[in-house]
Amino acid sequence: MRLNVNLQNGNTPAHSDAPPQHGNSRLPPNDRYDRVAVWLHWLVAAAVIAQFLTGWIWSFFERGSEPRFYLFRAHIMVGSAILGLAIIRLGWRLTHPAPPLPAGMNRMMVRASKLTHALLYLAILVQPVLGLVSITSLGKSIGRWPRELHVTLSFVIAAIVLLHVAAAFWHHFIRRDGLLLRISPHGRAPRAA
To answer: Residue 129's beta-bridge partner residues?
Structure first.
């Protein structure tokens, strides 16, 4: 339920279950993530896409081939960058709370949003660690499970990312509640304090 700004009979607030109609308008600064959070989000998103691409493409090359070697090295470097960015992002998030969710979201949507975000944070912390462990002598000494878990989790992460993106588009194009604008790099996000 959303509280409208106008008053009925001058006394009580009017209530509406309809989501606010933002269209392509800009959100007020308090309803957006700050610039640092926005850039961290999109840097991690780009790096995750790069990880999926390198991990998928190197399988087309023979073991020991030069392209596979370079793709593998790029995968390791980008994965390490994701881990570093994840630590920075988590620290930033703990000290700079997220803006409020759009009005009109029911309890189930709020819970789904919080769960999805928690799983994404967990993924960008755990997945790079698993990948790095799997290529070390420690990882190789404890068997294939770190590598196998790393590969299996990549499919789980892909599903969570697709759910996250689908929900963002649903909010933007169907509900039109301004949720996607909160993290958009375009517009006037407030400067970080």
So the answer is: none
- pLDDT for 14: 37
Alpha-carbon torsion (134, 136, 142, 143), positive or negative:
positive
CB under 8 Å to 137, separation ≥6 — which residues?
A: none
Mean pLDDT of 39-53: 97
Rounded Cα distance between 143 and 27, Å, is 51
Give the integer Cα–Cα distance in Å for 24 and 21.
9
List pLDDT tens digits, range 125-142. 999 999 999 999 988 899
Domain boundaries of the chain, sorted by first residue: 32-183
Query: Within 10 Å of residue 134's Cβ, how many Cβ atoms?
Result: 19
3 to each of 11, 29, 52, 123, how far by Cα in Å? 13, 19, 42, 36
d(CA 11, CA 36): 41
Residue 147, exposed/middle/buried by CB under 10 A (0-12, 13-18, 19+)?
middle
CATH 1.20.120 corresponds to the domain 32-183? no
The distance from CA 177 to its chain's CA centroid, rounded to whole angstroms, is 19
Collect all residues with Cβ–Cβ distance below 8 Å to 57 and sequence separation of at least 6: 71
pTM confidence score: 0.81
Predicted local distance difference test score (pLDDT) of residue 6:
34
